[in-house]
Amino acid sequence: MNQAIALDNHSACGSEPGLITVDEALQLILDRTQALTTECIGLDQALNRYLATPISSQINLPLFSQSAVDGYALCHEGEIEAGVHFELIGEIRAGQRSELVLQQGQAVRLFTGAKIPVHTTTVARQEIVQAIEHQNMIKITAALQPHADIRDVGEEVAVGQCLGQAGQQLSVGAIASLSMAGVQTVHVYALPKVAVVITGDEIADTMDELQSGKIFDANGPLIRAWFQQQHQQVYIFHVTDTEYAVSQLFHDLKDRYDVILTTGGVSVGDYDFVRPVALNIGFKEIFWKVKQKPGKPMFFAEYARKQHSPCYLLGLPGNPAAVYVGIQVYVNLLMKALQGQKSPCAWFSGIIQHELKSDQRERFLRMYAQFEQGQLYLNSLSKQQSHMLSNLMQANCLVRIPANQNIQKGAVLSGIFI
Amino acid sequence: MNQAIALDNHSACGSEPGLITVDEALQLILDRTQALTTECIGLDQALNRYLATPISSQINLPLFSQSAVDGYALCHEGEIEAGVHFELIGEIRAGQRSELVLQQGQAVRLFTGAKIPVHTTTVARQEIVQAIEHQNMIKITAALQPHADIRDVGEEVAVGQCLGQAGQQLSVGAIASLSMAGVQTVHVYALPKVAVVITGDEIADTMDELQSGKIFDANGPLIRAWFQQQHQQVYIFHVTDTEYAVSQLFHDLKDRYDVILTTGGVSVGDYDFVRPVALNIGFKEIFWKVKQKPGKPMFFAEYARKQHSPCYLLGLPGNPAAVYVGIQVYVNLLMKALQGQKSPCAWFSGIIQHELKSDQRERFLRMYAQFEQGQLYLNSLSKQQSHMLSNLMQANCLVRIPANQNIQKGAVLSGIFI
After folding, report:
1. Do A156 and B64 touch (CB under 8 A)?
2. Same domain, residue pair B206 and B330
3. Which of B47, B179, B348 sits opposite A218 (nearest CB)?
4. Cβ–Cβ of A375/B371 closer than 8 Å?
5. Residue A138 near residue A130, CB atoms below 8 Å
6. A180 with B218: Cβ contact below 8 A
7. Which pLDDT tens digit goes with each residue over B371-387?
8. Which residue from B48, B156, B376 is facing A374, i.e. has the nearest CB?
9. CATH code of the domain containing A402
10. Residue A137 is part of a domain; what is its CATH number?
11. Which Gene Ontology BP terms does the record give (chains A, B) (predicted)?
12. What pLDDT sits at residue B133?
């Protein structure tokens, strides 16, 4: 089954035949990847991880009927009129066990979250209660309906109710919500082990080295920071532009990592060894070259491993803007797909504030987006070329400009916040 | 100067006098906090930190004039017509130093990012160049303008140009951009040292303890996860509901932490010791009680320290929904303010898809927002009460509902993504 070749036919991109579209490339990442193994971990370690199985609640929430306010549990049939007196027989604090049972005409002092005693008919918030001095009596100062300010057992969540679906990512709110239901461990997908390979002989480490035609590396720091933002560790390798060095490294990495992410060396230059070396080692091409700017020569391949999910190689071009798009869009999706989350990217839609000229490839432009009256307005920034990154100090989104269209002011475009 | 008392006069909140509005509370956090000290750290440690001083570029970007493509540097006056031949005199790779100097009619093989030789007039991409076999000659196969595919020195950034402003947060893109300019250390604000104090005797650690009226704690895990998301460490303390225990703990923490964040014990219940204890120790109240739901009894105070910035105490109510709003809105702003970023919260605006009844306090509702045709549509979720969190498994935003207004379908509301 040679799906890579089949792909060559299903898009004809004007003057650049053989390229697939951005949407086709993204879909191939979803379709051609297998989720990794799963593991059970403590909920306190699970921020941003993806559930491998649904979670059902073991308890009711609230766990017991309780007071919603600081006040008094009362026992009285029907509505209570202002002026009615009750005998005060005790106090229950939140977290306190109590065997108190109310009889008609009796009251118990309660605090928010405290379990209401047996035979409570309603709760009076303390603002409408007056203590009668030197007597164990209270007076209700405003009319009160039955069952006021009572949180009923199970009214939020019943035992057995589904709390989270497989594939769901555990946000801060999800962690809090599961904690409240007493969940202490979760079954999640393993985190992909990622090796990053920076190719190229042009990387300077110090100002002095700049004299010899070298440049500072943005790609390694960019990728490291992105994974750090995702709370995921990566291992960065630098490799010189020789076939031997690249080959030795890939040979070693393919067995130890789930993903090899490379920058540079994927075009058709004389020193572009990533693709030929990968194919030679036994990687199968899933796609090569996407009709996009920046990042056209992107390469995606898989290596089958015995008793293991495949190793995936995503080869990004070396231009920093291509690496930026690659990581925010493609690597992001790949990491999710390997963790069982197979839904497509969630693009926003926004309204462009100016014209954009047509280009034969789809473009990703760095923009500044702002909300106004419920609408999202997009403004492109200058310095969009693929060797430039300085506008990322201002940009807050990455916006897709469809190929072969003159974009008018007011057109709706899709993008992601960055 | 008793600003806390002055505040009591400047808002009269209908039936709940003395409360300040959400906007007033947020403004007080900005106005009444001092930024912490600053420090120099490695750029690789600086993700999400805030710049304390502007950064200027030490270098030009590009550092030297270079090829934008794999191709050939040519020396030729004016436009080059198809068919013109050039003598090939060498090759320059990216990162390679070269002393080559072109004469009229000569060419040098170049790769993307390679420094162009002296006297280069234009660059021909390899797609329009044909090698002449057995000769050191190439032929240009399409007309070519002067200065094609050359990236000029300093065209993106000039030496001395400002790269980032004081107060700017270092995103992934900012880290990449600064790396490319050779920045290796940055001057940033120190991270606030935060102690979290969970009050309340009702916290269960195991299923067995639930039998005695206790509940599982959502607040500790929520706060820990939020700070983890921000890549910030916090120290969590549990304290029993006695005046002595709270007092001892505050005494100890105020000297060692920049922020004490508490949950519970800030209302007017008989066991609400946070505010009286803090005031007794010497904290000065900045505000208490905000006209909001959830989270009305929120308390904010400062403790002056010798030769140190003050210690701030933010007391959140114990209801988990109030803690959630407190952390996403107020703690978020406080952390920024202490790191020199004094701009207000960046609220989105979105369009509500249904009616909402009026309430005398401003509400924060957990909602699900989605984009359509450049507009952001908001849908409220069920189970919004202050003791409920389970809808955070679905919510993606927190939306502000103004006080004392019936909200119509189609109204514009502000909020934050969560």
Report:
1. no
2. yes
3. B179
4. no
5. yes
6. yes
7. 999 999 999 999 999 99
8. B376
9. 2.40.340.10
10. 2.170.190.11
11. Mo-molybdopterin cofactor biosynthetic process
12. 83
